[in-house]
Amino acid sequence: MKIEETALPGVLILTPRRFGDARGWFSESWNRRALQDAGLHLPDFVQDNHSFSAAAGTLRGLHYQAPPHAQGKLVRCGRGALYDVAVDARRGSAHYGRWVGVELSFENGRQLWVPPGFLHGFVTRVPDTEIIYKCTDFYAPQADGAVRWDSLGIDWGVRDPVLSEKDAQAPGFDAFDSPFEYEG
Ligand SMILES: Cc1cn([C@H]2C[C@H](O)[C@@H](COP(=O)(O)OP(=O)(O)O[C@H]3O[C@@H](C)C(=O)[C@@H](O)[C@H]3O)O2)c(=O)[nH]c1=O
């Protein structure tokens, strides 16, 4: 398991080992003990999500769940390729409003740890892309929120993405009343 820091403290890239042979490869996509042995103690996960996007340039985000239902997410790409983005939305954080983006693909096997208090979104790079992510809290539709994808200057690499109605109508980051506080 390779663990790398990103430009945004708290957001991490995890790359599990792949054991290749004549059939293909095998990988432990999640192993709590291996992460603990590496000094990384993530919160418990209670829900796994899996979504499929048919078209390249499908953008889902930027999403969050407000406390007490805030979610940390461990994200990976099951098929295809995507650009995954985390935004620090914790009031009082030295990095408030800053974002980091990482290419996740079936090929590179990378995973992105997006802690609670961060907005999350992604855009698909190729057709027929699957994303799979573990969440530290359950879906709570009443706490669900979105920030407009193009309000933070993120370079998504796409001009006119495929969006849900909810995401197309989301408020910009300037109008976003963040429910998250930096807790150190
Ligand atoms: C997120 C979610 C959605 N749903 C339902 C609600 C709705 O009818 C349908 C589609 O929901 P959405 O349009 O919100 O799906 P989507 O736009 O894929 O939302 C997801 O985007 C990424 C970026 C995230 O980080 C996730 O937390 C989540 O917000 O699925 C659940 O039943 N459970 C869930 O956990």
TrEMBL record:
GO cellular component terms attached to this protein's record: cytosol
Reactions this protein catalyses: dTDP-4-dehydro-6-deoxy-alpha-D-glucose = dTDP-4-dehydro-beta-L-rhamnose
Keywords: Isomerase
Broad class of enzyme this protein falls into: isomerase
The protein's annotated pathway: Carbohydrate biosynthesis; dTDP-L-rhamnose biosynthesis
Annotated site (Participates in a stacking interaction with the thymidine ring of dTDP-4-oxo-6-deoxyglucose): Y139
Keyword Cytoplasm in annotation: no
EC number: 5.1.3.13
Coiled coil: none
GO biological process per UniProt: dTDP-rhamnose biosynthetic process; polysaccharide biosynthetic process
Gene3D superfamilies tied to this protein: Jelly Rolls
Active site residues according to the UniProt entry: H63 (proton acceptor), Y133 (proton donor)
MF-aspect GO terms: dTDP-4-dehydrorhamnose 3,5-epimerase activity
Source taxon at top rank: Bacteria
Family as reported in the entry's similarity comment: Belongs to the dTDP-4-dehydrorhamnose 3,5-epimerase family.
Subunit field text: Homodimer.
Function: Catalyzes the epimerization of the C3' and C5'positions of dTDP-6-deoxy-D-xylo-4-hexulose, forming dTDP-6-deoxy-L-lyxo-4-hexulose.
Name of the protein in its database record: dTDP-4-dehydrorhamnose 3,5-epimerase
Name of the gene encoding the protein in the UniProt record: rfbC
